[in-house]
Structure formats: C-alpha cells, structure tokens
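Page 47, continued from p. 46.
Same chain as before, 183 aa.
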Amino acid sequence: MLQTANFEERLARVEDRLAIRELISRYNMSIDDRDLKTVGSLFTEDAFFGSVDGAMGATTPQGIVNQFKDRFSVLGATNHFTHDQVIEFESSTRARGMVASHAEVWRKERAMITALRYADVYEKADGAWRFAERRLSFMYYLNVEDYSTVLGVRNRNLAGDAPKPADWPEGTPTYVEYRPGKG
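Result:
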C-alpha cells in the first residue's frame, strides 16, 4: 500500500478513493440502463474486461461495448449493486481493487441472481479514473427459486447452457487450506 505523508497527499488519496467508488457505481448504473456510450467511457484505451471462467474477454472500449451488446441479447432488466470494496494504490495514477457485488437479472426468460467479484485495475489520466482491467468471477449465478438449495453444490454457475463450477470460494487457497478435501 502506498504511504502518504502530508495532509495534501492524504486528502488527494481520499478524493481518489471516492472517485474510484463513483466509477464503480457509474458502471453499475450504466450497465443497468444499457447506456453503452457511458460504459465505453469508463475504460482506458487499452482496457481488458473478461471473466475468470473465460466466457468473456474483450479489449478496448469499443470491444468491451460490443461484448456487452452480445450479453444484453440474452438479458432483460438487471439490477447491479456493490457491497465491499478494497482499493490499494500502487502510485498516484494506478490502483488495484476487489469489489464484491450482487446482481438481479432477467436471463433466458427467468429471474436469476448472482454473487460476483470484480478484480480491477484502475488508472488515472487527464484527472479521471478509469478501468484498465476488470475481471469478474462468480460465487453463484442461479435461478432465484434454486437459491435455498444450490449453495451446497460446486456447480453453481447456471448462466450458460450447462452448469459450471463456482469460481470461489472453493478454488481459493485459503478456503482449501481451511477445508481440506472440500475445495
């Protein structure tokens, strides 16, 4: 974590944290509103947006916008909301973050809910923070009516045609260490 010494630097760091949090919120609202012009403006020119499971992966703002156009073809209304965020600064113009989120979605003519995390890289240029990288992973993506039974199984990602294993927590080293044989 980058240490700062004086008041001005500390204040700038607080302002940067707030700007990054607003970037994340603007992303959620723009996705839900299907405001792809704004979505594209939130990414750096060489940005990457993808998923840990490899189902998504695009570079450049236009490539990312095109990826979302494809994703929206199977989605109805969505409601993304952010929970916890951890932001670690590497410099005054670069930071990494982990964002815990949920989304309520209408997908394939069904109500679904997903728990996800974004592993982010943020870059500041021309006074604005943008996503340089955004990689999402899933704890679950399931039909609302299955919520009470699906958390006990590993194949909790039901977004595609066939169930896939959840990206976390079972695959994380600390989870495996705590629950040997259960990962």
